[in-house]
């Protein structure tokens, strides 16, 4: 029996929203249309860039994020899923503005990493400069008793290039560039690597990466969305 519709605050990277919705469908145990979960999608591509604001390059996305959460609540959503990591900086402001649950993408990803690697002690993170600067993953890892491992500065610059010059710009990224980022963090002692940027989630799908210790933030939120919307996970 399904719950009431879940809300998806999309458009914070349109390719990531499309990939997220695809993953919700693919991860749902369904043999007919009616087995899939009900979702309301609020596509807000006009929301100011989250990382850009944190760098001081553009206006704050907070008003748009809060307004979108409120719109989803008015439309009948019983919770809000956000297929964006950097937007979690404003999760408490969104929660304060609505009476429904707002999922924390970062917490869901850390929880998925612990599930993927029982006894996890060191988690690597690939994310934007903006996400790293906010400390959301560091705080979530600390709450879970896990040490966070981040790239060296030159590898972080390469991560940003893969995200912005590659995925966001619609340019292909070779598999060896992605693998090199993951292996860098493994070389620093990471037992699992979190893809803390939804563009990296899109890239993982495009490249067909199947390593279960490479933990996808979009998949983590997709799983949480299916569960809260009353669906069943594919075995």
Automatic annotation (TrEMBL):
One of its GO terms (molecular function) is isomerase activity. The keyword Isomerase applies. Transmembrane segments: none annotated. The keyword Isomerase applies. InterPro entries: Asp/Glu/hydantoin_racemase, Asp/Glu_race, Asp_race. Keywords: Isomerase. Coiled coil: none annotated. It is an enzyme of class 5 (isomerase). Its EC number is 5.1.1.-. PANTHER family: ASPARTATE-GLUTAMATE RACEMASE FAMILY, GLUTAMATE RACEMASE. Belongs to the aspartate/glutamate racemases family. NCBIfam families: asp_race (TIGR00035). This is Amino acid racemase.
């Amino acid at each position: 029996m399904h719950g009431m519709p879940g809300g998806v605050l999309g458009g914070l990277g349109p390719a990531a929203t499309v990939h997220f919705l695809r993953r919700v469908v693919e991860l749902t145990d369904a043999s007919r249309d009616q087995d899939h979960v009900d979702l309301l999608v609020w596509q807000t591509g006009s929301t100011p860039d989250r990382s850009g604001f944190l760098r001081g390059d553009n206006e704050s996305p907070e008003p748009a994020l809060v307004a979108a959460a409120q719109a989803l609540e008015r439309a009948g959503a019983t919770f809000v899923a956000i297929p964006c990591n950097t937007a979690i900086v404003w999760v408490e402001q969104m929660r304060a503005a609505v009476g429904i649950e707002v999922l924390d993408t970062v917490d869901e990803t850390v929880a998925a990493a612990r599930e993927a690697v029982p006894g996890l002690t060191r988690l690597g993170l690939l994310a934007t400069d903006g996400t790293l600067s906010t400390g959301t993953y560091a705080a979530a890892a600390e709450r879970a008793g896990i040490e966070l491992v981040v790239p060296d500065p030159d590898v972080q610059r390469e991560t940003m290039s893969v995200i912005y010059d590659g995925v966001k710009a619609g340019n292909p990224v070779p598999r060896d560039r992605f693998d090199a980022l993951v292996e860098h963090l493994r070389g620093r002692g990471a037992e699992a690597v979190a893809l803390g940027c939804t563009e990296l989630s899109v890239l993982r799908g495009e490249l067909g990466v199947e390593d279960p210790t490479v933990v996808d933030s979009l998949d983590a939120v997709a799983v949480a969305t299916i569960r809260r919307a009353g669906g069943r996970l594919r075995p």
